[in-house]
Amino acid sequence: MSLAAASLLSCASGTVMPVAGSGKKEVILNSSHMANYRKPLDLRDRTVALLNQLFNSDISNRNMILIINNHSECDLVMDIFGSRTYSLPISAKHSESIILEHGNYQLNSQVCEAPYKTSRKFTENTQLNIKYQYIPFSDSTALTKAF
After folding, report:
1. Dist CA 38 CA 19 (whole Å)
2. What is the pTM of this model?
């Protein structure tokens, strides 16, 4: 049996690695056959974009930063569905960040083969912590838990 959950904190810290998205569920890579898609920003541009968003105090700003911390032992890809669709790869024991417009989003992933699915309304910078835990029982059965 697998359980999925997450903890959400309203803050902004962590690694700065956004991924550009398209109307389709796919990771956008920098290659010539994808000339019509937005290109991913290089590290310096991503850092500048995230810092500008973090310190933007304009009340008309419709963007927010989503930081996903993967505390599990497994790599994962977080699929983010909302006004745009993103797939954000996150290495085990690492964090990734992305700038999103305010709104309702569905987040889906597999955390060490345990399904993770949640719906959230994001209106401010948010940190999402993903953890996975294997819980053994005394009768030789086990429970896996993603939270």
Report:
1. 10
2. 0.64
